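A note from the maintainers: we've had questions about how concatenated examples are separated. There is no special marker in the raw files; a new sequence line simply starts the next protein. For clarity in this README we add a label.
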Amino acid sequence: MSQTRLSTTDAAIDVRVIPRPERHRLIGTFERLNSGDTLLVINDHDPRLLSYQFDARYAGRFAWQYVEQGPDVWRVRISRTA
């Protein structure tokens, strides 16, 4: 299990409490971030499919960093870089 220190400025979304069909719509939250801001996504599985969606939609404008990698909880810090 890998863990990285969390920033107190991370906006956090715990998608475990959101119905699955609605989870990826939260990608719009990223669009409201300013350059340098971060979004922390908390999930019960690896959000790898979300990373593919970010690659397609925001190529070169974000950084993806695993903060915690399972087995029960995944935390990913998504930073707006541009």
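[label: protein 2]
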Amino acid sequence: MLDIKFIRENKDLIKEAGRKKKIDFNIDELITVDDERKELQRAFDEKRAEQNRTSGLITSTQDESEKIRYVEEMKVVKVNMQEAEEKLKSTMQKWHSLMLQVPNIPDFSVPEGKGEEDNVEEKTWGEKPEFAFPLKDHIELMNSLEMVDFERGTKIHGFRGYLLKNDGANISWALWNYARDFFGKRGFMHFVAPTIVRKEFFYGTGHLPNDAEDIYKTQDDDYLSGTAEIPMMAYHSEETLRKEELPKKYLAFSPCYRREAGSHGKDTKGLIRVHEFYKLEQLVLCEADHTMSAKFFEELNKNFEDFLESLELPYRRLLTCTGDLSASKVKQFDTEVWIPSQNAYREVSSVSYFHDFQTRRFNIKYDDGEKKRYVHSLNSTAVATPRIIASIVENYQREDGSVAVPEVLVPFMGKEAIGKPSMQ
């Protein structure tokens, strides 16, 4: 959410942000409603002052006839107050709804484009493996090595269901534990975050209202989080931090749930697109300074790229264009890892920064000694399973049907290769 004063003073800038992000938003309607809001607030405050004045007269007067007259006046004042409050409440709801539609302003370095096809490749790393034997995809490999059970997973969960077992489960734990150590050495505080989160916090991060179809909802009107970003942003909601506490650097583990609405027909088999998965998320809260945000943005991205390089997985980095950039974000990188069987890169991480767009909604501030300011927020994937397992298995497959274990995971796996359980 942007500051309404900033919006009013920079109408053309906001309109341009909406155009670039392909967001149909009527800023003139917001300004009109904001004028109504301010006028109704003024009228309501006047009636409240009148109520306080009349209440004081009732209390102070000793004349019974005057007291009766003031009581009658108070009845009229209360009716007027109620009417004014209802009008203000209705207008505030409309104002808040319009404010939630205002897009954040993309950084000047973000390329203009219509959608993901216009994202810009900025970097590639690693040698794509060449195989002197018939290539297998992760489904065939993991089935033959008894690492996964899709049939029973579908029986239990339904479409996109899966069970990781044996070394399929072991490599998941290895990745989580390795990531915990890897990112922990970079100054992150560790968390295990809740998955069931109040609805209001999804609005805070910007996942609602736009992603409503992709979120699982409980019968209590709470939601299942698709990323630890949401509960970790809620962690400091309605708090004022000290400047000396910043930056806050959190590494949070959580189950994640996404309905994958709109992806029917895409990745219907295997581990590339599933309804439930596990993720470690990097999150940073820092001072309200663009240079500081840009610095941590590059740092979070480097953390993940270093992580992939330590696993020796080929990847590429994409700079997200304006048409593929969500309303809340200033800038985003997507990192895609190589999937040999698909002859393509597939996304395994994104890193984004928001300035104070999220923290205004969460009301997270810090005191810099002069005034209270909204902190800036950033987040990035640290590692998400099981998608990355598909890449590891395919890139590390061997001619005999076994899979080599990345060197950095050997201490966590206790072995250098994955073969059939009967072979171990």
